[in-house]
UniProtKB/TrEMBL annotation:
<dbReference type="InterPro" id="IPR007079">
    <property type="entry name" value="SuccinylArg_d-Hdrlase_AstB"/>
</dbReference>
<comment type="pathway">
    <text>Amino-acid degradation; L-arginine degradation via AST pathway; L-glutamate and succinate from L-arginine: step 2/5.</text>
</comment>
<feature type="active site">
    <location>
        <position position="254"/>
    </location>
</feature>
<feature type="active site" description="Nucleophile">
    <location>
        <position position="371"/>
    </location>
</feature>
<comment type="similarity">
    <text>Belongs to the succinylarginine dihydrolase family.</text>
</comment>
<feature type="binding site">
    <location>
        <begin position="141"/>
        <end position="142"/>
    </location>
    <ligand>
        <name>substrate</name>
    </ligand>
</feature>
<comment type="subunit">
    <text>Homodimer.</text>
</comment>
<keyword id="KW-0378">Hydrolase</keyword>
<feature type="active site">
    <location>
        <position position="178"/>
    </location>
</feature>
<dbReference type="GO" id="GO:0019545">
    <property type="term" value="P:L-arginine catabolic process to succinate"/>
</dbReference>
<dbReference type="InterPro" id="IPR037031">
    <property type="entry name" value="AstB_sf"/>
</dbReference>
<keyword id="KW-0056">Arginine metabolism</keyword>
<feature type="binding site">
    <location>
        <position position="114"/>
    </location>
    <ligand>
        <name>substrate</name>
    </ligand>
</feature>
<dbReference type="Pfam" id="PF04996">
    <property type="entry name" value="AstB"/>
</dbReference>
<dbReference type="GO" id="GO:0009015">
    <property type="term" value="F:N-succinylarginine dihydrolase activity"/>
</dbReference>
<dbReference type="GO" id="GO:0019544">
    <property type="term" value="P:L-arginine catabolic process to L-glutamate"/>
</dbReference>
<protein>
    <recommendedName>
        <fullName>N-succinylarginine dihydrolase</fullName>
        <ecNumber>3.5.3.23</ecNumber>
    </recommendedName>
</protein>
């Protein structure tokens, strides 16, 4: 089998948009609910995200940037019957349907683990990298992302010889798809055919199967199967697993809140999957029994502590042959979690370094380091075929931090979302951003 030894796993992080706010929109996501109506700081949120991107770029990794969405989403508000000037639309929406307005203002596209599912070219039948934007049907504010996400992905990976872009799955709950947050690719070398691991919360067409009772299962088995078909994956290169419904009911709304993998390593909680011993056996078999698992016992870290600290919403990165784990500060503040992590680092586990980041602005909406990034494995030609303006560099970091400083507010509360000035500020920021990243006219306001 042909292996490209220069293939890398690139991380494309979502740039936080200028309307970042806390609106309590995500039932089942404990942090989103508990921070509802607090004041946000979009400037700090964007700078915290950029600091992580820059640090990983400095560590020698390939780091990219995905542009945010146009928010407030005036097109959606008009589709819902609000009319008149832009200022009128905002004002009437805030008076008559303030939650709908908040949903149309969410900066939730920052969590690019939910932007799409990506299959590297080594796994696909046609040898291209495949992208399917996630329909995110379970939450209204997220269901309005996929069209523009698709345009941003096309403008970032803009070479048909190497990249295949699909439409999102049909936007109904039967095919609820949350993208890469529920997808992990295991491999021995990035450039070699790997094992794509799809995790779902429930079955849409089989009500005899277990499902959570308190909180929604956002992602279905049928959606995962459809993505594997669309991407042309071989049956022997795919493993499916159902999330443990009990942990969904404790706030694990995506699999990346309870498990993370990289290369031949799975780091997961003991209660992550239904029939866990069987799932791990299947994965080990698919990986020719060269597979390592760090399974964290409930007695060491409870599911509640995992959800609060986002221990598993970490990034496992290969840096100079070592495995480094990128974690949010909240892990350091949780004694059970920090004890466990330092023991891993100091013992003989594959994890040899901890990198801690302050991502508080995103964490308060339930988005940790892993939520903020979309992984894209790229061989050498594919790296060269990416839009170079979207790849992190010292110059891009400087340019983007200046751009944030110039355009972003340092405080937003609910009442600000109807401010027509915020709409103008956001549009002028995004207009400039499309030039910086050389994306063309991806936003609806640029297409009139
Ligand atoms: N785990 C991953 N990969 N992503 C985290 C997504 C967090 C996001 N939060 C929100 O959308 C909250 C928005 C608000 O309440 O204002 C969500 O629940 O979809």
């Amino acid at each position: 089998m042909k292996t490209d030894i220069n293939a890398v796993e690139a991380n494309f992080d979502g740039l936080v948009g200028p309307t970042h706010n806390y609106a309590g929109l995500s039932f089942g996501n404990v942090a989103s609910q508990s921070h509802s109506a607090q004041a946000s700081n979009p400037k700090q949120a964007a700078l915290q995200g950029l600091a992580k991107m820059k640090a990983l770029h400095d560590a020698g990794l390939t780091q990219g940037v995905l542009a945010p969405q146009e928010r407030p989403d005036l097109n959606t508000l008009r589709r819902l019957g609000f009319t008149g000037s832009d200022a009128n639309v905002l004002q009437t929406a805030s008076q008559q349907a303030s939650k709908v307005l908040a949903a149309c203002c969410s900066a939730s596209s920052m969590w690019t683990a939910n932007a799409a599912t990506v299959s590297p070219s080594a796994d696909t039948a046609d040898g291209k990298v495949h992208f399917t934007p996630a329909n995110l049907t379970n939450k209204f504010h997220r269901s309005i992302e996929h069209e523009v996400t698709g345009r941003i992905l096309k403008a970032t990976f803009n070479d048909e010889r190497h990249f295949a872009h699909h439409q999102a799955l049909p936007s109904v709950e039967h095919f609820g798809d949350e993208g890469a947050a529920n997808h992990t690719r295991f491999c021995h070398e990035y450039g070699q055919a790997g094992i794509e691991f799809f995790v779902y919360g429930r079955y849409a067409f089989d009500s005899s199967k277990p499902a959570p009772v308190r909180y929604p299962a956002r992602h279905t088995y049928e959606a995962s199967e459809a993505i594997a078909r669309l991407h042309g994956l071989q049956a022997k290169g795919v493993v499916y697993a159902q999330q443990n419904p009990d942990v969904i009911d404790k706030g694990v709304f995506h699999n990346d809140v309870i498990a993370v993998g990289n290369r031949d390593l799975m780091f997961c909680h003991q209660e992550a999957f239904l029939n866990q011993p069987d799932v791990l056996k299947q994965l080990a078999g698919a990986m020719n029994n060269q597979f390592n698992v760090i399974e964290v016992p409930s007695a060491r870290v409870s599911v509640e502590d995992a959800v609060k600290s986002y221990l598993f919403n970490s990034q496992l990165l290969s840096i100079n042959g070592k495995t480094v784990i990128v974690i949010p500060e909240e892990c350091q503040k949780n004694p059970a979690v920090w004890d466990y992590l330092t023991e891993l680092r100091d013992g003989d586990s594959p994890i040899s370094e901890l990198k801690v980041f302050d991502l508080k602005q995103s964490m308060s909406n339930g988005g940790g380091p892993a939520c903020l990034r979309l992984r894209v494995v790229l061989n050498e030609q594919e790296q060269a075929a990416c839009n170079p303006n979207t790849l992190m560099s010292d110059a891009l970091y400087t340019r983007l931090t200046q751009w944030v400083d110039q355009h972003y507010r340092d405080r937003i509360i609910d009442a600000d979302l109807a401010d027509p000035q915020l709409l103008l500020e956001s549009r002028s920021a995004l207009d400039e951003l499309t030039q910086i990243l050389n994306l063309g006219s991806v936003y609806p306001f640029q297409q009139v």
